[in-house]
Fold:
Amino acid sequence: MQKIPINLAAAGMVLAKDVKADDNPSSSPICGKGLTLTASLISRLSSMGIQSLNVEGHPVKIEGEMSLDEALAALEKRFSKVADDALMLRLKEIYRRQIVRSMGDNNG
Structure:
């Protein structure tokens, strides 16, 4: 899942979370999770004042963000000094799965 500014949203992206009005997050959803975006829907959401969307995968490369490969390489580096500690290796695997789940399997 990736949170992106609405101006980077594109038709075909799929919402990973419900879209709610920014001023009232406890309100009913405007659009539901799993909905595929269209150009007209993005335009409508923008005109309603929605500034960002949570989309599935990691479809947009935003300056300063790591790709999936870069994030996994950084994880390996962080855990390189504890390669003989079974508990730390288990923790590294939990982090690895979370990174892959949040960024998607499509290399960012």
